[in-house]
Write a structure and sequence with these properties.
single chain, Neuraminidase, 351 residues, mainly beta, 4% helix
Amino acid sequence: MNKRLYFLGGLLLALLACNIGGTASPPNSNLLATLAASTPLTGSPAAATIQSPTSAFNLSTPIPSTMSVPTSASSSQPAGQIVFTCQIFKVQAGNQVCIINADGTGFRRLTTDDTTQHFYPSLSPDGQSVVYAAFRDANIFEIYEMQLATGKVTQVTDQYGILGAPEISPNGKFIAFKHSNGFTDKNQIWLMDRNGENVGNIPKASGWDPTWSPDGKYILFASNMDGPIQLYTIRINGKELHKISSLPAIRGRSDWSPDGKYIVTYSGETWKHEVYIMNADGTNARILSPTGGNSQGASFSPDGQWVTFTAYFDHPNDDHGCEIYIMRIDGTDLRRLTDNDYCDYQPRWGS
């Protein structure tokens, strides 16, 4: 009975949230969750129409009022750590959390339970810990925090439902995450204290894959609340909700640059995803990744000069071929960090 509940819970989660694009033809059952779209689909992405974003919000860091193109300092070299989901057993139910230095050294697996799914990791602002979601029971995924120095793991939540994409606020005090219950297709953005207390949803924030603005006042997230999936921003008190993107077939997980000027996301048809960069108000969206890699799930480096993402450049059309790459914010200097016979995805860069 427990095995049956375990299977049903994992299958249900696969339909609700992941971070990797699907195959042109149905993959085998073990890869269904890994290669599914990052979020619940409510229509054909290819049929999505471009929608006009609403007026922009105000950040303490000025947003360019005119179109701009970021450039990368040529002398900057990648630093810090990148945490990601590593499907070392080639099955969703055994997903683990791994970490690697931004220069490609120091790869190691962090989680140790071979039989439990772990996913959506992100690093704390100080780089000392990792938060992630992991399976507990049918329709129950908890959020955990692991101290990197000791490996000590703390369970932060307790039976709220299917939780994912946790991210610690810039001041280190709060965690934003996605919540759903497994019985409806409704996803909400929730907040809680770092220790798991004072849990609640952000009013009007119906969506998934939250990430913080650098000043900690806004949340960026993906949602289909107004039709095709787009990116939205909202104050953490539920005010100033704005749709900022106008790309067809946006998928999910995005990130904000440390200076508050830019956003990276990914968009495109199945097996044809590309990483996009845009101004923080949604203007001047353009493809950042070299084309043809089915690139997705991007995250900025702490210095804002690099982007990490998942792609298939070296293993095209291979279900297990997703690797972690980095590139400069002008799209140059592509480097592969991982090279495994299994899927590495959902990267988040930290100190």
